[in-house]
Amino acid sequence: MRKTYRVQALGLLLALLLAACGGGGTAAPTSEPAGEATAAPAATEAPAEGGGQPTSGEPIAVGSKNFTEAILVAEMYALMLEDAGFTVERTFNLGSTQVAHPALVRGDIDLYPEYTSTGLLEVLKLEPLDDAAAILEAVRAGYEEQFQATWLEPSPFNNTNALAMTRAKAEELGIRTYSDLVPQSGTLRLGGPPEFPEREDTKGLVETYGFDPKFTGENFMQYDTGTLRYEELLAGNIDVVVAFSTDGQINGLDLALLEDDKGFYPIYQIAPVVRQDTLAANPGIADALNKLAPALTTDVMSGLNWQVDGPDKREPADVAREFLTSQGLIQ
After folding, report:
1. 3-class SS at 176?
2. Total domains in the fold of the chain
3. DSSP secondary structure string, 192-228?
4. Which of 14, 47, 50, 110 has CB atoms 3.0–4.6 Å from 278's, for a disulfide?
5. Please, which residues have CB within 8 angstroms of residue 261's CB and are 6 or more apart in sequence?
6. pTM, two decimal places
7. What domain range includes position 167?
8. CATH number (domain holding residue 83)
9. Strands ordered across the beta sheet of 60-63
């Protein structure tokens, strides 16, 4: 099947330039996986079911942020829609939330996968919540009111933020928890996505635990999203890495995931964020994509990520299609 990758013109270029100042990695989820969060109930006024059949006849532009999991899930969304009869345009690898969200609002894309607490904290600028249903309710209401967009059903996995070390280094320094890390945070080198130090949740993390300002300041090493920061960790060029709890490298490289012993980080479930005008014209989008949500558990997502980021270096499109076919979700 021929895939169309649209290149956004000056609008996206401007957004990319603006976002460069704040970084370009995941705006998703940095803690030990909190397990699979309980999926929240559907919105009170769910869109009418369309039997998965196209209505408007217009192509559906599916976007993604610029890291493995986002691209994998976006490809799964695209394949589910194509299987339901929609024509899809793929606009992947846009950048961080600071790029993808404005693209959605402008109408450059019709939908993309986003994380619930990213929408809550980074887009809506609300206080964190510790309940999956409450988070989903808040982001649905906020997006519908402010951006004329809504959230479909989230998947159960919780890709929360995490900090990890090589097992040897963690044992050498006696570090098991974030609190153990604090006394040595002025000398240890942290590596992560460029936007990490300026994220609202990172500022809260530093304040909650009392990390040395150098930890996210002069001792912070910026790495674009991808595998480079893990390679630098293994090479000894950094001591601690910003991770996400479904990263395939955590299990694949036998890393020590540090415990967020104060339970700072909230729940980050992934879900399709869709323009309401697109959904009104194509109500079958909800039916097609909601079928996928339950299949993406923590273990499943971590394994799929490792197929792309691990030694096999498989293409996201191949991994996504193989998984959906094996689950009977597409033909």
Report:
1. coil
2. 2
3. E-TTGGGSHHHHHHHHHHT--GGGGTTTEEE--SSSH
4. 110
5. 177, 178, 179
6. 0.76
7. 161-257
8. 3.40.190.10
9. 4-5, 88-91, 60-63, 111-115, 270-275, 149-151
Mean pLDDT rounded to a whole number for the chain: 86
203 and 245 in a common domain = yes
Contacts of 81 (CB under 8 A, 6+ apart): 60, 62, 88, 285, 288, 289
Q: Dihedrals φ, ψ of 39, to 5°? A: -65, 140
Closest to 8 (Cα-Cα) out of 116, 91, 110: 91
- CB under 8 Å to 126, separation ≥6 — which residues? 120, 138, 142
- Identify whether the C-beta of residue 277 lies closer than 8 Å to the C-beta of residue 269: no
Question: 32 pLDDT band (50/70/90 cuts)?
Answer: very low
Closest Cα to residue 158, out of 301, 35, 248?
35
- What's the pLDDT tens digit per position in 46-62? 333 334 467 778 999 99
| Predicted pLDDT of residue 260 | 95
- Residue 75's Cβ-count burial label (10 Å; 0-12, 13-18, 19+) is buried
Question: Would you say 120 and 139 are in contact if contact means Cβ atoms under 8 Å apart?
Answer: yes
